[in-house]
């Protein structure tokens, strides 16, 4: 009787807690990368649920079967049964192999350009962290924002992640998984937003006292609205100076700020030659061509 009431209490408690929970943002994808992650999560949950249900079903079956046997029953001695041993070893091995293949395949998918956007030019955004804020540089538009991010829908986004402080973790749950922003390296994260809306972004790696408030707002909008936003910023925002940027890097919390220009020129990221944007790409290409030409001339001179 006590067991019955304990089980009922547990079920009631779980039901009450789940009723008051908001939908998990991770399970509400708004982009292809996030959808891939959600698919893997559900495959894992269903696989584990099947295992649990089978174990409970077998347990119940043998408990009921054993309860019907006489008290003096002695089970037969079994030795070296290849069928049972194959099941015990083979089934868990097959489950591990299946989940490994699914996980590895999904990792390659989320690290690549989102499906359906392979032939489109990505929007490159440099996302840098400091204590305890996020700086977003748009080299293509020549603007910069602090603690908020505007994105065009139906276009691949290529984030260049790095940090001016401790290692942070850039994460927009409804658009994709997290990736680290470090002080001495640039990590690339590919995302895309299929659905216009407002999403939450945050630092998912503990970085000290202000970690909990190191969040940023994300707004995905149609390309036309995005272009209009860029025009408004260029006509109203103040330019970002080196002195102002150094002030922004001081530890503390800030609201949302907007500037024309970026910090990439006077405070470049660790991988400084990958500054993104059409003009920068052309410059980099020209520099590479000049370098290759110089090396060719040197080689010809040596011969």
Q: What would CATH call the architecture of the largest domain? A: Sandwich
CATH topology of the largest domain: Immunoglobulin-like
Distance between the termini: 95 Å
Judged by helices, strands and strand pairing, the structural class is alpha+beta
Shape: elongated
Helix content: 40-55%
Overall pLDDT level: 85
Q: Work out the count of structural domains.
A: 2
Number of distinct beta strands: 12
Adjacency order of strands in the biggest sheet? 8-5-1-2-3-12-11
Strand content: 15-25%
| Number of helices, where a helix is a run of at least 4 consecutive DSSP H or I residues | 6
What is the ordering of alpha helices and beta strands? HHHEEEEEEEEEEHEHEH
Major sheet summary line: 7 strands, mixed
CATH classification, class level of the largest domain: Mainly Beta
| Regions with little confidence, pLDDT below 50 for 5+ residues | 17-22, 272-303
GO cellular component, one term: plasma membrane
GO biological process, one term: ATP synthesis coupled electron transport
GO molecular function: copper ion binding; cytochrome bo3 ubiquinol oxidase activity; cytochrome-c oxidase activity; oxidoreductase activity, acting on diphenols and related substances as donors, oxygen as acceptor
Membrane topology: Multi-pass membrane protein
